[in-house]
Amino acid sequence: MSKQSTSLWRMMMALGAVTVIAGAILAWVYSMTSEPIRDAQLRARRDAIAAVSPQFDNSPQPVAITPEGEEVPVELFPLTLGGKPVGAAVETYSDAGFSDRIRLMVGFDSDGKITGYQVLSHSETPGLGAKMDTWFRDPKGNRSVIGRSPASDDMRVSNDGGSVDAITAATITSRAFLDALNRAHSCYISYTNSR
Amino acid sequence: MNKLKIILNGIVRDNPTFVLMLGMCPTLGTTGSALTGMSMGLATMGVLICSNCAISMLKRFVPDQVRIPCYIVVIATFVTVLQMCMQAWLPALDKLLGIFIPLIVVNCILLGRAEAFAARHSVIESVCDGIGIGLGFTLALTLLGAVRELLGTGMIFGFGIYPETYGSLVFVLAPGAFIALGFMVALFNSVKKHP
């Protein structure tokens, strides 16, 4: 009996000591890395905004806009050049994809035309849906969305009667991509209307 | 035991992928290209060396009955440290490997080597085993990634060898991973048997 209780005591001591040391190490590394991780995320976002937007010289601050008929707000970054508004970048998303959420950064100029986009994260099929990274800026046919405005163009895939060529063998991803794009545009419109 | 021999054993005689058949999930999941395969291999190697070292140091203090939970805590700690460091200083690589970094915790190679080697050998020998097995895993993943990338997209490490249109998409997707892995296991073992 006494031998059993000592071994139980030893087990608890050993496991307890290992977890305490592990916890201490993790706490220390967390405190070391939390700042650089936040910086890296901010830098990634800044790079994405710069990559998709028209020329601007302010430091974009997020504004939360809730798209019409939805509940989850989307972050919009108003851009100015010499104090005048030149458009915005919108961090948008779609849950209509093949798997998981697709997140995009989309840039608009002051006329509401798309100046660029960048895929922030997705889990679409490699080699098929994952092509959206380059497909929708390819000038071939009606693939490219750059320079178009969802206000004047029907931004749906051509199978659905729209004016954008879907990715070959990845129509679902294409629909989701355009869903995210239209969400971004409606946010941009409600932002410009509210000012 | 000869240290060089331990390292060589890890690469050839006990190659984790081609001979021990351990850690198949990241092997199939991250070898879409040579670069991701190699990064995954190196990340796993880093954790394996640290965990082997820590476990062989701990082996005298940890009672047999609670050794598995202790090993898992040690491995999980190193993996979390690695993930936080990667998010802080290598965000691009972290995005590339995504969920497979935290999944290193449940990679059988780590627990397998802890049980089969580190718990029975000295610290130096365990570190050598970590290096050997880690190199073997990295080599296997890089080779498999290179084969899949070449057959799938016509590139190796992103350098074009032949035009992408001749590539076969199946090798980028999961079925191609099984096919390529099967052929490589067969090749590796036949070369090993009849050198």
Molecular structure report:
The complex is a heterodimer of chains A (195) and B (195). Chain A has 195 residues and is α+β, with helices and mostly antiparallel strands. Chain A folds into 2 domains: 1-51; 53-194, no CATH class. Chain A is 41% helix and 19% strand. Chain A has a 5-stranded antiparallel sheet, sandwiched between helices. In chain A, strand 4 (102-109) and strand 5 (114-121) form a beta hairpin. Chain A is elongated, with a radius of gyration of 24 Å. The N and C termini of chain A lie far apart (78 Å). In chain A, 31% of the residues are buried. The mean pLDDT of chain A is 86. Chain B is an all-alpha fold. Chain B has one domain (3-193). Classes of the chains: A alpha+beta (195), B mainly alpha (195). Chain A binds chain B through residues 7, 10-11, 14-15, 17-19, 22, 25-26, 29-30, 32-33, 36-37, 40-41, 44, 121, 125-128, and chain B through 32, 58, 61-63, 65-66, 69-70, 73-74, 76-77, 80-81, 84-85, 87-89, 91, 95, 152-153, 169, 172-173.
| Gyration radius over CA of chain B | 17 Å
The number of helical runs of chain B is 8
Unreliable segments of 5+ consecutive residues of chain A: none
Mean pLDDT of chain B comes to 89
- List low-pLDDT spans of chain B: none
Quickly list its features.
heterodimer, A: 195 residues, alpha+beta, 2 domains, 3 helices, B: 195 residues, mainly alpha, two-stranded antiparallel sheet
SSE layout and pairings?
The complex is a heterodimer of chains A (about 200) and B (about 200).
Chain A: H1 2-52, E1 63-65, E2 74-81, E3 84-94, E4 102-109, E5 114-121, H2 132-135, H3 171-194
Antiparallel strand pairs in A: 1-2, 2-3, 3-4, 4-5
Chain B: H1 3-11, H2 24-29, H3 34-58, H4 67-89, H5 91-97, H6 108-118, H7 123-153, E1 155-156, E2 159-160, H8 174-193
Antiparallel strand pairs in B: 1-2
Helix pairs in contact in B: 1-7, 3-4, 3-6, 3-7, 4-5, 4-6, 6-7
